[in-house]
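User: hey, got a sec? need TauD/TfdA family dioxygenase folded
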Amino acid sequence: MAETIALSPELGAELRQFTDPLDDAVVLQCREALKWRGVLLIRGAHLDDDAQLAFSRRLGTVLAPGGQEIFTVSLDPAKSRSAEYLKGTFEWHIDDTVHAVPARFTMLTARHVAMVGGGTEFANTYAAYHNLPTSERKHYDGLRVVHSLEAAQRRVCPNPTVDQLTAWRSVPSRETSLIWQRRDGRRSFVIGATADHIVGMDREEGRRLLAELEEWATQDRFCHRHEWAVGDVVIWDNTGLLHRALPYDPSSERTMHRTTIAGDEAWT
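Assistant: Yep! Here you go:
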């Protein structure tokens, strides 16, 4: 049996003595750690693409956006056609907020790392919600948020061209509850870079509220930062954690391989 240790008080676990990613007991440990700790680190696992896919499939159905089960994360256009879009990952976000059903887990493996910067930060929005005063929780219940690709990309490029706007707006927006109550009763914020405005509230007022909640959810006590080494594997609960990449030189060879595991619970 592998050993699991906490990485910080509010989130994160490291799986040690990791040997067989396909072992039933290991997979069960991973699922439990992801449910209750949000982020799972396996240092120096050195999974190749086949091993990463096999491990990912033990956690659920692997998605293939654009027909690719393995997505290369790089700011080098020669390595990734999404290099320009990936600049938006320096902002706090949840993936798939504009989709009806968000991805459940994301797995990253480090193939090359930046000499300076390039870490990944995570913020636990379950803990952020549950540490609010009861009066504030009641205030946010029932509020709804519109998420859009445009909102996220404007943080990176506030003065877009007509072609950029057209591309961003070709992706339909999605309305979700501000506080997502799951089937199991747990609650978390649905916020981050894609959160554009609050339904029925003055836009600027709503955006100030969203900014305040993001600031609350990303304070140090709810966060964990991972500094990558080649071969590291990190898996996280995409539905309840905000994440972001930390800045690094775009000419860096930093390269991650990502797999995405499908969710089975739609936004409410």
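Quick note: The first strand starts at residue 3 and ends at 6. Let me know if you need anything else on TauD/TfdA family dioxygenase.
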